[in-house]
Amino acid sequence: MEFFCYHRDRTGSLPLRRELLERHWSYMDQYEKELIARGPTFVPGGDAPSGSVHIVDVPDPAAARAFAFDEPGYQSGVYRDVLLLRWRNMLGRTMWDFPGGRTGGNRYLVLGLGTVPATASATDLAVPPGEDELIAYGPLLSDDGSTWLGTAALVRAPDADTARTVLTVDGYADVEVHDWEFGGRR
Predict the structure, then answer these.
(1) Contact between residue 159 and residue 106 where contact means Cβ atoms under 8 Å apart
(2) Cα gap 168→151, rounded to integer Å
(3) Which residues make beta-bridge pairs with 178?
(4) What was the pLDDT predicted at 123?
(5) pLDDT(177) > 90
(6) Do residues 76 and 65 touch, judged by C-beta distance below 8 A?
(7) Statement: residue 11 has pLDDT above 80
(8) Which is nearest to 167 in space by CA: 118, 132, 129?
(9) What are the pLDDT digits (tens) for 23-65?
(10) 29-33: long-range contacts at Cβ-Cβ below 8 A with a sequence spacing of 24 or more?
(11) How many angstroms from the chain centroid is the CA of residue 17?
(12) Strand partners, 170
């Protein structure tokens, strides 16, 4: 089962985040084969991290919760909250298979959050045009996979406004766009 995990940094946690970086990477190294994508998000217009994205394929929701909440930064108080939802890999590849490679161009996390209650019809279930610029793409789902809760995409685009267009913006309660880059040791 694939899960989208977004740890959002607590204000003022950057020194602790830096102190724990090697522990974080060592923890993630244990999931090397299960990771579909990973990497930090950044504060708007800056180079300070604002969060950490991980898309992982694990056996079940309990394993996903263990992955998210046993992470050293979470255990030490780096993060203010965690968004953890089932996800479906519509591209069928990992970020390392992205034809555009690790570098070159701006990268973004585009996160479309569905309405509450989730009574609206699902939006953006098909891969949009411009697949060559998509690093990862898929719907966010309930634990049992039956309810659409939104869509998450990692995309290469010239700017945040262009990245936002990967989703049908009026189909969501909110659409967030975060600067993002490939993470990990690779």
Answers:
(1) yes
(2) 10
(3) 109
(4) 82
(5) yes
(6) no
(7) yes
(8) 129
(9) 999 999 999 999 999 999 999 888 899 999 999 999 999 999 9
(10) 29/185, 31/56, 31/58, 31/67
(11) 18
(12) none
pLDDT tens across 78-114, in order? 999 999 999 999 999 999 999 888 888 899 999 999 8
Question: What is the per-residue pLDDT for 46?
Answer: 82
Average pLDDT over residues 1-6: 98
- How many angstroms from the chain centroid is the CA of residue 76? 21
User: Can you give the three-state secondary structure of the chain, one letter per residue?
Assistant: CEEEEEEEECCCCHHHHHHCHHHHHHHHHCCCCCEEEEEEEECCCCCCEEEEEEEEECCCHHHHHHHHHCCHHHHHCCEEEEEEEEECCCCCCCHHHCCCCCCCCEEEEEEEECCCCCCCCCCCCCCCCCHHHEEEEEEEECCCCCCEEEEEEEEEECCHHHHHCCCCHHHCCEEEEEEECCCCCC
Instruction: Measure the CA–CA gap between 160 and 164, rounded to whole angstroms.
Output: 6
Alpha-carbon span 52 to 71, nearest angstrom: 11
Q: Which two tokens stand for residue 70?
A: 């046993």
Q: Is the dihedral of CA 60, 133, 32, 152 positive or negative?
A: negative
Is residue 119 very low, low, confident or very high in pLDDT (cuts 50, 70, 90)?
Answer: low
